[in-house]
């Protein structure tokens, strides 16, 4: 009797888990490639920003001298390659699978920052990296299957439902308030304002990227979606959002430590993107409560890893450099400002 009950339970479990679809696997591979490129681009761009700031006006105070720095462009091209891979990933897999894998870019960024930028990675930072990997694996194994969409008009209908329209309007209003009121006053001393703009705008850009990716995928499969105006509207939104993200991400990277910017940006961006995807594409409607809870546990595990990576910077005790003795950190930021960040 007990054995038969066990067999029934095993059969039910195997039936509930159908494995990853071929589209999800394609999205997974592209998302992993994207993380590798983007993680490396943070470091290369940071080197370019520091080099440009030494001979011109820093991006953190409104300068654009980095546009004349070849190293920054190398990092920019690397990021573009990563974003293209990320773009393709969203065309095949749901955002709740693709977006959390950005944690791997944090690991790559932290390791390269340790090697190239001499931003020390503490042993607990290594543990943080391991937690990110475990959390990412959990989400990958329990991610929902991609929604079947046959036309970009279907995506447009999802985007114009009242719930998502309310979310998009709220995001735009908050972004405008941050840009025109809070950033001029507190942008140089509080990291959350620069990163907040990037993350909020990023959640809208991912939804538009996914819509545009689906349109291009269907077009390549023989169903032309370029004839619909909705496709071009999504393309315009992508361009506007990406340019805004790049501008404020450059400011954040130039003003604050890379190992602080990366995890905070990841946590806010991923949380808001998952929220936007749940509202627009209704990812959780195709899952049972157990799968949803497991995904959230995986996400919390990733958040724990990013938290450890962030706190690691305060645990490393090393010899003071000459610029530290003069009251400045390695990025030309007064140490008093860094202490303020740690207490906010």
From TrEMBL:
Show the InterPro entries listed in the entry.
Answer: EmrE-like, Mg_trans_NIPA
| Entry keyword set | Cell membrane, Endosome, Ion transport, Magnesium, Membrane, Transmembrane, Transmembrane helix, Transport
**Which residues fall in a compositionally biased region of kind Basic and acidic residues?**
333-344
- Name the segments for region: Disordered: 320-344
Q: How does it sit in the membrane?
A: Multi-pass membrane protein
Subcellular localization, as worded in the UniProt entry: Cell membrane; Early endosome; Membrane
GO CC terms in record: early endosome; plasma membrane
Q: Where are the transmembrane segments?
A: 25-44, 65-85, 91-117, 124-144, 164-184, 191-215, 227-248, 260-280, 292-310
Gene Ontology MF, one: magnesium ion transmembrane transporter activity
User: What's the main place this protein lives?
Assistant: membrane
Superkingdom classification of source: Eukaryota
Q: Partners and quaternary state?
A: Homodimer.
Q: What does this protein do?
A: Acts as a Mg(2+) transporter. Can also transport other divalent cations such as Fe(2+), Sr(2+), Ba(2+), Mn(2+) and Co(2+) but to a much less extent than Mg(2+).
Of which family is this protein a member?
Belongs to the NIPA (TC 2.A.7) family.
Q: What is this protein called?
A: Probable magnesium transporter
Naturally occurring in which organism (per UniProt):
Olea europaea subsp. europaea
């Amino acid at each position: 009797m007990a054995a038969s009950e066990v067999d029934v339970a095993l059969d039910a479990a195997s039936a509930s888990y159908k494995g990853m679809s071929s589209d999800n696997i394609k999205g997974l591979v592209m998302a992993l490639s994207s993380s590798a490129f983007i993680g490396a681009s943070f470091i290369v761009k940071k080197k370019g920003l520091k080099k440009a700031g030494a001979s011109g006006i820093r991006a953190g105070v409104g300068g654009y001298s980095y546009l004349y720095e070849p190293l920054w462009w190398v990092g920019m091209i690397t990021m573009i390659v990563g974003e293209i891979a990320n773009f393709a990933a969203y065309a095949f897999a749901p955002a709740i699978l693709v977006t959390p894998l950005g944690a791997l870019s944090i690991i790559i960024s932290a390791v390269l920052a340790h090697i190239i930028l001499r931003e020390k990675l503490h042993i607990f930072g290594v543990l943080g990296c391991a937690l990110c990997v475990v959390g990412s694996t959990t989400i990958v194994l329990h991610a929902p299957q991609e929604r079947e969409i046959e036309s970009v008009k279907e995506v447009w209908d999802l985007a114009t439902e009242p719930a998502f329209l309310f979310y998009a309007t709220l995001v735009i209003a908050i972004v405008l308030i941050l840009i025109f009121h809070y950033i001029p006053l507190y942008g140089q001393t509080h990291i959350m304002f620069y990163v907040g703009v990037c993350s909020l705008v990023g959640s809208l850009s991912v939804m538009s990227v996914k819509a545009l990716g689906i349109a291009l995928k269907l077009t390549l499969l023989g169903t032309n979606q370029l004839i619909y105006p909705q496709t071009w509207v999504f393309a315009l939104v992508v361009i506007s959002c990406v340019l805004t993200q790049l501008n404020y991400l450059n400011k954040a990277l130039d003003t604050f430590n890379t190992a602080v910017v990366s995890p905070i940006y990841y946590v806010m961006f991923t949380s808001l993107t998952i929220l936007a995807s749940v509202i627009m594409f209704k990812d959780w409607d195709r899952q049972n409560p157990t799968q949803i809870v497991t995904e959230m546990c995986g996400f919390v595990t990733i958040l724990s890893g990013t938290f450890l990576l962030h706190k690691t910077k305060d645990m490393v005790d090393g010899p003071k450099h000459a610029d530290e003795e003069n009251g400045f950190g390695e990025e030309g930021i007064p140490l008093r400002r860094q202490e303020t960040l740690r207490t906010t």
